[in-house]
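Two proteins were folded this term; both appear here.
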Amino acid sequence: MVSMTHNDASVVDEETFSVRRSIQIAASVDKVWRAVAEPEHVSRWFGRTVLDGVGVGATGTMTFPDYDVIPLRVEEYDEPRRITYRWNNDDALGTLPDSIDEATSTVFTFTLEESDGGTRLTVVESGFERTSDPRGNLESHRTGWDLELDKMVVLVEGEA
């Protein structure tokens, strides 16, 4: 029985329309970086991710079971410290699956720091004020980051 790190849940900031979660992972920065930045690793815990390259401007998709294909683009890339993605998440608008809607998309950034012999990973997703249902989307993404990042911790710590 492997004991997994216990982490606090995501928090919503209604003033900045953002969701934030900061967690401790008992694994190296390099391992966590691969989990959040390399599509084949992201696909193991999050949506099935495909990108046409590496670094800023790489585009692709993230696919979730029973859900649409979501366009994805890398906005910032500073290996192994920080990566930012932009994605569509506004179903109400029926945007084309092959393009990012600049008007309603949100961005999420993973920031990694060495901490206590492991890695401190913080994710912040913002831009919800531009979506069709800001509060509903904030709440669903708050729950989503709890579920998805918990899966990632189990995966990465299990391999550490």
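Next, the second protein.
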Amino acid sequence: MKVAFATLGCKVNQYDTATIETALRREGCDIVAFPGGADVYVVNTCTVTDRADAESRQLARRAKRVNPRARVIMTGCFAQTSPQQVAAMPEVDYVVGIGRLAELLRAVRGELDDASGRIFVDNLRKAERVSTLGADVFTGQTRAFLKVQEGCDLFCSFCIVPFARGRSRSVEPREVLVQLRRLAERGFQEVVLTGVHLGGYGGDLKPRIGLADLVEMIAELRPLPRIRLSSIDPPEVTSRLLEIMRASDVLCPHVHVPVQAGADGVLRRMRRQYDGALVRDVVAEITRQLPEPGLGTDVIAGFPGESDADFAAGYEMLATLPFTYFHVFPYSRRSGTTAAKSADAVPPGIVAGRAQALRRLGTEKRRAFADRLLGGVASLLVEGTRDRESGWLMGYSRNYVRVLVPGDDALVNSEVRVKLTERRGDRVLARPLAATGDANVGTV
């Protein structure tokens, strides 16, 4: 049986798709590209905005156009929050909510009949554990993801995720370590720990622990060479967590702190649990503790009620802080959220202009960071694809700089020390250290 996947949204969705794919491969299914002629199409949907819902619907229609006789199964956040709406689409055969892996596999195998129904969705606000684990196949990737936390209890005014993913719940540390060892056995050199609200890890466990406790256990056991953390909200980037990262050569010096806005008034309307002063303090502590850290952030441009003065204040804060890259999101309405009911929406043209200005600032910061590192040594994990323009191998340094290096395919999925020699636009070029004769000690 041929199965094709399409995945929208975040790293947690990518992990869930990998879990499903792992299970199907063990059953002998062939995983094929989505444009090809599959027998079953699984669309792992996103619902973070109304536009994401539309993209999910488009993928279902596209699957039926490719093969009108194929089964189309919708899963993920849009399927979880709007199952009746999704099931009403003539192209959709089954709607399977998050965490219903057994039913999803039965739907793929064609084992469900009319008596079983077409919709399989639980109320995840009542869920007490993470039920989707075990991914060890990440097609086309040399880095793996591991979901250690699921759900969210913050209820930011722009976000539907707590309704889609349920309440915050964590994977037991023992199971996290088991999964890391499995991924190491599969040959992965780097794993990204991810979650819907990663900084909330452990609050539901008994005894209660924190993310720093989990990270410390991993650092002590060293299950594989590189561990990277995904997004952590500003209040949860603690001095203890940073101290553990600084002391370990397994934990990558890379912190992604989703600030979302720089003006206190906008942060209050977003129902974020911090202000600009805390962001400044956290960023100062990161740069004090970690040498040349990769420091990223998410920013929403044009949130309802964001005045020109709000945007200017936020822009100034982001410009003065040592972030090394931005992910910029023009505000997009999400039905069912508090922000969607706001009467003071920012005109689309202004939203687009603010997003463009923030992206330009992010580009400047990314290039300035790369320039600062030139002449130094980086530890590069080489990926399996090559840069189309140069034909060179590609990979990321430990502090999340995208680097190109010449070499043969034997270097793929290995960590190579390189000297950063040149920046061309957004491209950082390097040479293997052995070829440079350079004996620099500092490595990023």
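The chain has 14 helices and 18 strands. The longest helix spans residues 348-373. These notes refer to the second protein only.
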